[in-house]
Amino acid sequence: MTDQSSPPQLSFSRVAPIFALTFVDVLGLTLILPLLHLYAIAFGASPLEIGLTAAAFPLAQLVGVPIMGAVSDRFGRKPLLLISQITTCISFIMLATANSLWMVIFSRVFDGLFGANLSTAQAAISDVTTAENRARGLGLTGAAFGLGFMLGPAISAITLEFTDSLAIPAWIAAAYSAVSIVLTLFVFEETLPPDKRGSARGLRSFTGLPLLRRSQIAFLIALMFAQQVIFYGFETLLGLFALSRIGLLGQGIGFVFVFVGIVLVFAQVRMIGRLTTRYGEAWVAKAALLLLGVGLLLLAATPVEPHPFYVRQILENEIARLAPSGAEAVIGEIAVEIPTREVGGSLVGIAWLLFALTVISLGAGLIRPSLNSLMTQRVAATDYGAVLGLSAGAVSAANAIAPLLGGLAFQGWGAAAPFVIGGIGMMVLAGVAILLFRLAQE
Question: What's 49's domain CATH number?
Answer without folding.
Answer: 1.20.1250.20
